[in-house]
Design a protein that fits this description.
Chains A, B, C, D, E, F: This is Germin-like protein. Chains A, B, C, D, E, F: GO terms for molecular function: manganese ion binding; oxalate oxidase activity. Chains A, B, C, D, E, F: It is found in: Cytoplasm; Secreted, Cell wall; Secreted, Extracellular space, Apoplast. Six copies of one chain form a homohexamer. By secondary structure, chain A is α+β, with helices and mostly antiparallel strands. Chain A contains four helices and 13 strands. In chain A, strands 4-5-12-7-10 form a five-stranded antiparallel β-sheet, with no helix packed on it. Residues 1-24 of chain A have low confidence and may be disordered. Chains E and F meet through strand 6, strand 8, strand 11, strand 13 and helix 2 of E and strand 6, strand 8, strand 11, strand 13 and helix 2 of F.
Chain lengths: 215, 215, 215, 215, 215, 215
């Protein structure tokens, strides 16, 4: 617990006076512990060796290392976070949304096929899919709340990207996992009709092992 | 075009003076035409017979009639919209998200089985599914950006709900449609791996007719 | 009220880790108790039988049943609430404002004469009154902070409406009650001059019984 | 009014490049004309002799000189405005609300009796009236959307205050004027019941001359 | 500690019920103690004799008396604060920024030479300096985050201004103090290169006594 | 620059209908041209080869390549941008602020000595300087509006960082340039007193060539 008591909330950097900090219960904002501004230090805004090394990729061939308010408490209220994403050859960061953030991404190594789907359009239009092949140094934007993915089309080489998100706590919803791998499961009656398949297809899907790609 | 020129933006109700309104190009905010506040009238905040009648349900057995800033331009900047949802017997409003809004819903007629899935949790936890059976007068909340659905479990009777959303332009993303019915299609390589199925299952899914439930 | 301690704040659904939740003092956001996200359940987003039944109307002939963050703690930070309003024959929801919300309303039964008054305009203009008679299924918008009312003009039949507000805690200020029924009373010198009446008219007004229509 | 076309929007101070500014239609944000940042000058953030002189007070004995985005276009999007308020002996700034702003006030000369009324409380509580007598240099806060007033209790000396508001376009709703002096009038049936008086009292009130105190 | 426990947070004025206020640990929002709304009183929105008297000016000839959420806890979440600034003859409020607020200022006495510098422009443009001489009653705006100052050019007479800021906790960063007077000092290698001067010039600057003008 | 006229504003992705898009004047939000959502394409969210190559550093030894709403118009309203920063050996990104954004930074190559200065503290405290040496993969946060810098302490090797900012238009104010290199210059009387130096020191500073590091 020692380190938790050293967290600071920047929003109150100027506001907290000592009589407030002497209360026996720690002061919290958004559920996070704050700190007397005169006691804050650089470690409250720092995470060592966070994004330098490739991580082992998961079963769909990716790994997301997100540095958000859980890793750097000084981010509280500041509306930003950063991530490194590793992609195995032919690996993907599967279709997902961030319920509270837009994402901007740049490729550090390799090639990525990326895309997002717009929200529903008036009939007879369908949800529009916008995609692009990105090379090193290219930048792409995934607007808040829209379903998007990245895929490494190269069968031999890994890829690496840096992504930034417009929230200190963006959240992530991997579509396949949330729909077919939730605990408890969503009724297969509902899903069979929604996805226009037989119930046993849904049952098969729900029986897979759903590993969360990132949170 | 006559009606469009009569739209008002409430945010500037007090601010616009005549020399500004006399410009030959209409004033717009968020892309919508504004109106001199002295010329605004009650029709700019009104939609007749919007939500009283059952509508024909779609192939999954529901119909969403959303009254947003497209129907009532006076809603611009005001952060709210309202909808009536009709459900056929065994009909559903299939799993979807609103990228820019929380939804609160109450049942007017019939019974609904509703639920939402939380965002990804740290392993070994899975996305949590929270559900409830709602009867007439019950109220339920679907937090912003989370995947949710409503299903009418009654094989004989329709159901009706009123829902409100915390945006004048909430958007909707029907998951199955956005993932399998986009234009153009998402690569079946990507989707097969994401959903842990064979590519021909994806191809079959993509070959279905995907009708947008609502926008 | 034991269940109140199990309320959850959705904004931290992804953020709270166990060492934070084990603190002996409950975590609060906006003054409300939060909950470990793995312990949240559907009841935190649900209110049973909230809006199905007519309620006894007050002395001006209406009853507002508001479901806000006090009734459903999961609404915290989510910016929306919902209400059922019952109107006796010739009853009204008297002129009031919501200091923190826009309202959108639809009629479920009966007829309503509704209106709002714009804020002050440059002289010689006066505050503009915009009104409309609403029938079943009509939708009307009351912009944030403006004085508005609903009146059931039918001497024989009740009316019912569903309203949604763009805040989880919109507040309500019934004009007559706040001006003439406050505790303690506002000086009758001030009010007599403001309303251009004799002081004994003010005194008579202040002597009435002011029942709060809703909060 | 040539100078109106030279107004700048600060929010885009860094963003507009010349190819955007060369469009024949002026660029607007919130309905106000913007300006190429390289052409902006100090006059766009300045109003001369705005608040130095006493102004003639109105029939309730006050005058509000508000400097908002209409007077200084550079205020657009910046969320603040300032006002000088003059009070005749026994004059008042009558009960009013600002639908989009909190107000903070300090007395420059004389004495003021000020107060605000909280929003509706759960029964049996009534709207609470909080008041204070202010002398030179005292500071008081009127929270957003709440009904408040200032009254000069001195029968011989005027008073002066400076007030600031948390919006570049706060709006003002003088309660008596909006309720009894709107154009057109609110139905006296509605108002008689809301204010618990006879209709002829309402008619008498509506027949007064309602001069807008400020906008 | 008695007075601290009587602070109120307005945002929850309508929301807190007694079972919440009876918890043994005080409820806080933004790190400030809240109060049961039925126990709030006018003192929570009031500061006596805050801005009436000239204060002793500091070594650069000014004094800022800021009334923010630290002085009036009822300001919490309301987004505004107010200040009196005294200027000795030839005194200045030196170049500084407010990281979280726009400032609007009016002159009460004397004359002020004021200005702000825009943010960086595309080359070959330089940061633009906008300035103005203000007399009594003039109003000027300093946009959020931009470097600005006020200077009293009169060698014989003091000056006084009232300023309002668009945050209950605007913060202030006096440029010279933050750059040359921080604790610990910034490396003189870094500053010498940034300011294009010899290191001994930086060392001399850092050796001065840096008194904080205001916070 | 023809493609610039085809930029889209995502915020209205769902809202614009064709009759609005057919107006002869383009629709703008925040001063930027919007686009019919059915005509939007991936290029509106993409910038090729934006951040892959080292750029020539400026006279203080750095180069900031910022991808904001000027480079990718689809970023409008989405609240994020990204930058690559190159540092020559012993080069620095000199002390500066972002008036509208927090920055989060990770090192791609080399070593950086970074720091920021807190805002003014109550006497006798001084502005606190928090600093850290960052190696490859470390992450550091510079809170919104605070003065910060990065310096490459290695005399032989360059360094590279990726930074993200919590605004699509964060702005930058290089302190030395804004204070000493503005156009026109700030009065040396004012600056001499503020910085506690002789006027000829200020004159010498103002005579330097001030090249904008980034905008």
């Amino acid at each position: 617990m020692a380190s938790s008591s050293s967290f600071l909330l920047l929003a109150v950097l100027l506001a907290l006076v000592s009589w407030q900090a002497t209360a026996s219960d720690p002061i919290r904002v958004n559920g996070f512990v704050c700190k007397n501004p005169m006691e804050v230090n650089a470690d409250n805004f720092f995470k060592a060796a966070a994004l330098d090394k490739p991580r082992v990729t998961n079963k769909v061939g990716s790994n997301v290392t997100l540095i958000n308010v859980m890793q750097i408490a000084g981010l509280n209220t500041l509306g930003i976070s950063i991530a490194r994403i590793d992609y195995a050859p032919l690996g993907q960061n599967p279709p997902h949304t961030h319920p509270r953030a837009t994402e901007i991404l740049t490729v550090l190594e390799g090639t990525l096929y990326v895309g997002f789907v717009t929200s529903n359009q008036p009939a007879p239009n369908r949800n529009k899919f916008l995609s692009k092949v990105l090379n090193k140094g290219d930048v792409f934007v995934f607007p808040a709340g829209l379903i998007h993915f990245q895929f490494n089309p190269n069968p031999h080489k890994p890829a690496v990207a840096i992504a930034a998100l417009s929230s200190q706590n963006p959240g992530a919803i991997t579509i396949a996992n949330a729909v077919f791998g939730s605990d408890p499961q969503i009724s297969d009656d509902v899903l069979a009709k929604a996805f226009q398949v037989e119930k046993n297809t849904i049952d098969w899907l729900q029986a897979q092992f759903w590993e969360n790609n990132h949170n």
